TrEMBL record:
<protein>
    <submittedName>
        <fullName>DNA replication protein DnaC</fullName>
    </submittedName>
</protein>
<dbReference type="Pfam" id="PF01695">
    <property type="entry name" value="IstB_IS21"/>
</dbReference>
<dbReference type="InterPro" id="IPR027417">
    <property type="entry name" value="P-loop_NTPase"/>
</dbReference>
<feature type="domain" description="IstB-like ATP-binding">
    <location>
        <begin position="3"/>
        <end position="125"/>
    </location>
</feature>
<dbReference type="InterPro" id="IPR002611">
    <property type="entry name" value="IstB_ATP-bd"/>
</dbReference>
<dbReference type="GO" id="GO:0005524">
    <property type="term" value="F:ATP binding"/>
</dbReference>
Amino acid sequence: MEALCHEAIDADLRVSRFPLETLAVTIGRAEADSGVARTIARICRSDIVVVDGIGLPPVSHETAEAFYRLVDAAYERGGLAVTSDIHPSGFDAIMPETVATATVDRLMHRVHMVETGGESRRLAKALAGKGREGNRPLDVIG
């Protein structure tokens, strides 16, 4: 998804990318200022909105609600991408069922879903000592 975002930016498209928790904080701050609709509208003005890292661990009700609000606002406008470690049918395991159902209903309508598999490249690099820190050996504690 990161590479696709870079390609979109290179093509002069506006991209907003949020880890799920950062999205929740952003919308939570707007809620304190009574500006949720304005904040979500600003985010949705991007050509592509990416919500990254939905999966484990479970999310709070506030985080699930923030995610739903964005998905609902972006619904049928296109340009919404979501990355997840779990299939959307399992979202009710990580967020309240009613919010998960409404969110997945909107996400799965007119969706292009890309499922990836295989070994984690980051884990393989880290185990080979070629992670972010270059060729430093990996110390595993546990």
